[in-house]
């Protein structure tokens, strides 16, 4: 610990922490950040100047920016019990159906969990700037909810709007009247958006972005077979995952920011590609992915934040 007693003392850069969407796989980033806290001796909420997230990553960003929680405290809200409450549903008739006619889950459970975390706080009450991304289906436009741009929006609405993943959750109506779905449909890696917003907010070009992914699905899709797929075929073969692919965003951000950008991510391996698999074995694999990230990127992350 003594080696990091002067941690961050050399750097004047404004530091932004960006979270991808990815359902329960967002736990891996918290495992990585917990190790960062242990090795640095500081809370993540103190290390960064702005927090940005989309979908499941929005929850992590809001917990850090608004509640100043530690990574371990946030991870506790990703326990099996809380996940089961978030993914509660009364749509029993859909579960045995080949074609899912309604959203898989309702909003009631996740709203109750968010109330336990944030009570009735609004975005403007965040001690540090925080930002989430959603998509307005009626206006066909991305929408940024932030502590500095939309301070009156509730934390619960910002989180639900950003994480209303099609198929999984219903379209969400926020206090501003907008009907929103998951912001990942326009940018599942919000790092470049985070950078541009941070430049405006802090009035400086000296911005560093640490970007936390949720794993890459590299499973091959059979091209010949895909030629005959209709809507149901593509749904069965991860069309949502393809739409949420972050490779282009990552490459563009890397080209623009260079050494001011560090990406933490890897292939998901044997982790279930489905965003809601909260089974014990799958969560263990996700946890292991986060530990592997620390082994691969830990030293680099410490140096990145200290220069």
Helix content: 40-55%
The Rg value, from CA coordinates, equals: 19 Å
Largest sheet: 8 strands, mixed
Give me the count of strands: 8
How would you sum up this structure, described in words?
The protein is of the alpha/beta class and 307 residues long. The chain has helices spanning 27-40, 44-47, 56-65, 71-76, 80-86, 92-95, 108-118, 155-162, 191-202, 223-226, 231-236, 239-243, 247-257, 280-305, and strands at residues 14-19, 50-54, 130-136, 141-146, 172-173, 179-182, 207-212, 261-264. It is 42% helix and 13% strand. Strands 1, 2, 3, 4, 5, 6, 7 and 8 form an 8-stranded mixed beta sheet that branches. Helix 3 packs antiparallel against helix 8. Residues 1-9 have low confidence and may be disordered.
In a few lines, what is going on in this structure?
This protein is of the alpha/beta class and 307 residues long.
Secondary-structure map:
Layout: E1 14-19, H1 27-40, H2 44-47, E2 50-54, H3 56-65, H4 71-76, H5 80-86, H6 92-95, H7 108-118, E3 130-136, E4 141-146, H8 155-162, E5 172-173, E6 179-182, H9 191-202, E7 207-212, H10 223-226, H11 231-236, H12 239-243, H13 247-257, E8 261-264, H14 280-305
Parallel strand pairs: 1-2, 1-7, 2-3, 7-8
Antiparallel strand pairs: 3-4, 3-6, 5-6
Helix pairs in contact: 1-14, 3-8, 5-7, 7-8
